[in-house]
Each structure stands twice: as C-alpha cells, then as structure tokens.
C-alpha cells in the first residue's frame, strides 16, 4: 500500500497516477455527451491522454487534499478563431453550391474537404464560418486530489521472479498484450472499470533502443504493437484482462489473417500475453489452456517503448468513447 505519510504533500507531475473526486459540467453553450468520465472518482495518469488536456494542466503540481473549484477548461474543440470567418463573393461560391438556394445554417463542403457553415447572406456575398460548431465550448471543472502515486521506472519482468513494475509502494499492477493493431486494443481496455491508464508502444523486439513506427512496420526490429495497462487489482482481476484480450481477438483476428499467412515472420501484429509476475503467468496459462485459438504467445514482459504521440488514444481522438463501461462498437480494423 502507499505510504500516506510520505506522499501526502507530494506534488503531481507528468507520469503520476492521480485519483480525484471530479465534477465537470458544460458551460457557455452546448457540449455533447463526453467521451470520457466527468463525474465521481476518476483516475488520471498525467500526460497519458485521459479526459482533456486542460484537466492534466490543472493537476500539475497539486498535492493530496488540494481542491480546484469551478475552473473553466476548454472542452477539447479549441477556441473560436475570427480568421476562420470569411465574407465570400457569391460568384466564387457557385462552383461549390447553388448560391440561390442557400439559407443561413447551411453547410458547404469545399474541395479541400473543409466544411463551412453559412452565417449571413447579403446581396452579393455570403459569410461562412469554418470553425468547428463546438469551438469555444468549455467545462467548469471542480476536483479534490485523493491520491498520488509515482509510476514505476520499468515495466519489464524482473530476473528475481518479481516484476519491477509491481513495487510494494505502488498500489496498482501492470499488464501488457499484443492484439494486432494497438489502437482498438487500447480503447477496449480504457473502457474497463479498474483500468487506471493505458499507453501503446512496442515490445519484444531485438534492439535495445526505442524503435520508430516505420521500423516496426517494416519488421526491422521484430517489435510488436503492444498496449500497456495500469490497473487496480482491487477492482479488476488479471484474469478479466486476459479474457478481454481474447474477446478482442475474437472480433479482430480475421482482419489480420493476411499478415499471418503471407508474412509469418513479421512480428508487428503477432499476438502475445506478456506476464509481469509469476502469478500473472499462472493465470494466463490457465486461461490459454481453455482458449488459445488465436495463437497468443505467453512470454515475460520485456522493455516497453512508448509509441509516437500520434498513436496514443488514436480512436478516442477520432471521436470514440473511452468512458468506463461504454458499449459502442469499436470502429477499427485492429
């Protein structure tokens, strides 16, 4: 368990697991249903992409017991920009739309794939707005910091039969799986109650330096796309994580069969369950004895290298929900 006396005034920084009592409510206009949890006890690993960037900024340098009241943070759509509102002569719009049929509020799709909305119509011109419809929206954020824990420095399996990521002062545990494309796997685990945070990256390779996505795609380093999971074993068991991994493979494996047939030695999408402790190994062995039709290898966890930021929370950034217990289909080939 965490030593409360030694961590009570610890200041939160990037990479810390922070538990908060959170209340976020929309303000200054309409905000659609959020793609993340906004109420109750919420866990955030600062810098790992949960919720909104503004919340991560507010958590920086906070200590246990600190409280933030009704601070406005951007809802994730950016501020409205005056330079994206333009008055256009009707003649210039004729190649895109029938200007005589335009009404205020109509959307116009431009050749550049940019969509604009008509906000005013004059005799010879039309005013269009290229801002996102939710630009400028915000949340009122209130929270109290309940707990702060440092992430382990390493997530590899230890030589002494103890995982270096399962240190006694760290109240959570780590798991890692390769399930094909890491985008879909990440959001699947994010939705599971008890999962504190996830990160996608590369592991099980032959090089001892961080690979690039291109190197992994080309098979140069033998790394696999992997999702790293930090979870609370008091809420979700490792057995449940393994079963979710197998459930995910049941949905996605057929879309990756070409890689397995034509590139049997290409490791990027090879399935794997990487144990961080002997207990995890034994649990995984039992589960895979009952169901391993997807060819999941059971191996010790090795060095984990984070993927480029563009791959982190990829489906969430694209508009899919990472709320706990979300039931929407995950729209991803991986």
List low-confidence stretches: 1-6, 159-167
State the secondary-structure class: alpha+beta
Strand order of the largest sheet: 13-12-9-11-10-14
Helix content range: 10-25%
Largest sheet: 6 strands, mixed
In whole angstroms, the N-to-C terminal distance is 36 Å
Q: Counting H and I runs of at least 4 residues, what is the number of helices?
A: 9
What is the overall silhouette? Answer: globular
How do the SSEs run, as a string of H and E?
A: HEEHEEHEEEEEHEHEHHEHEEH
The overall average pLDDT, rounded, is: 87
Radius of gyration: 23 Å
Strand content: 25-35%
Q: Tell how many strands the DSSP assignment holds.
A: 14
Describe the structure.
There is one protein chain. This protein has 334 residues and is of the alpha+beta class. The chain contains nine helices and 14 strands. The strands form three sheets. It has a six-stranded mixed beta sheet, with helices on one face. Helix 8 (278-290) links the parallel strand 12 (272-275) and strand 13. Helix 4 packs across helix 6 and helix 6 crosses helix 8. The two termini are 36 Å apart. The relative contact order is 0.15. The model is unreliable at 1-6 and 159-167 (pLDDT under 50).
Q: Mind sketching the topology for me?
A:
Elements: H1 4-7, E1 17-27, E2 39-45, H2 53-59, E3 67-74, E4 85-89, H3 90-93, E5 107-109, E6 115-121, E7 125-129, E8 138-149, E9 173-178, H4 182-190, E10 195-203, H5 213-217, E11 224-231, H6 238-252, H7 257-262, E12 272-275, H8 278-290, E13 297-300, E14 305-306, H9 314-317
Parallel strand pairs: 12-13
Antiparallel strand pairs: 1-2, 1-8, 3-8, 4-7, 5-6, 6-7, 9-11, 9-12, 10-11, 10-14
Helix pairs in contact: 4-6, 6-8
